[in-house]
Design a protein that fits this description.
Shape: globular
Signal peptide: 1-38
Number of strands: 11
CATH class: Alpha Beta
Number of helices: 7
Helix content: 25-40%
Oligomer: single chain
InterPro entries: Transglutaminase-like_Cys_pept (IPR010319)
Pfam family, one: Peptidase_C93
Order of helices and strands: HHHEEEHHEHEHEEEEEE
CATH architecture: Roll
Distance between the termini: 21 Å
Keywords: Signal
Strand order of the largest sheet: 3-11-10-6-7-8-9
Strand content: 15-25%
Length: 220
């Protein structure tokens, strides 16, 4: 979850009004829920990569996290922006996503730390959405996946609330690792409104302009 100050700065009301369109309207543009289900070599094909649209304000708790653990936020521009999605990588992503979802106990930052919002690696086995995503990224980086290709991402979820996920940018599109489900979905199949993600060019964040698709998949 996020503090109101994180969503207010990105004018979430404007994003909701402008981008949460009826499913039929999106389907007419080729962005409906059936997009991205094709598979190649057992790996789902994502839709087109999601586009960034300028700078965005970083979540304030992310800024605090970066002061405490700068190595987790450093952008190495020598690393690739996207990775090749091989069967081996797909297997690693699925395994780490499921393992992390299983091992971490979901608790709010208020119950965990006594604060509205705190980002951290959940070394004590407890955390909320961003903590799951940070641990997944750490584990994947340790497995050899370039950190630059795994930006932390902020969305509006099916409950109309702020939510953090991990995006993996690949040659087959952008995929989402989520603590709400074990399935690894193309970004266009989550049903989320995409607000912003970490920049791949500097330490900071970039806007995703409210990109959205209508259906939240129920598969777990």
């Amino acid at each position: 979850m996020f503090s109101p100050r994180d969503v207010k700065g990105d004018d979430m009301l404007s994003i909701r009004r402008k981008f949460i369109a009826p499913a039929l309207a999106l389907a007419a543009l080729g962005l409906g829920a059936t997009a991205g289900h094709a598979q190649q070599g057992g790996i789902p094909m994502a839709s087109l990569p999601i586009s960034a649209s300028g700078d965005a304000r970083a979540p304030y708790a992310w800024t605090d996290f970066c002061k405490r653990t700068p190595a987790e936020c450093r952008v190495e521009t020598g690393e690739p922006e996207r990775v090749e999605m091989t069967p081996k990588l797909w297997k690693s992503i699925v395994a780490i996503n499921s393992r992390t979802n299983r091992e971490i106990e979901a608790v709010t930052d208020d119950d965990h730390w006594g604060v509205v919002d705190r980002w951290d690696i959940p070394t004590d086995g407890k955390g909320d959405c961003e903590d799951y995503a940070l641990l997944k990224r750490k584990r994947l980086a340790e497995a050899g996946v370039p950190r630059r290709a795994m930006p932390m991402t902020v969305v509006i979820d099916e409950e109309n609330a702020g939510h953090a996920v991990l995006m993996i940018r690949t040659d087959r599109g952008d995929f989402i690792l989520d603590n709400k489900r074990n399935a690894i979905l193309p970004w266009s199949q989550t049903g989320y409104v995409y607000v912003k993600r970490e920049s791949q060019y500097r330490t900071g964040w970039t806007s995703l302009g409210g990109a959205q698709t209508p259906t939240v998949a129920s598969v777990r």
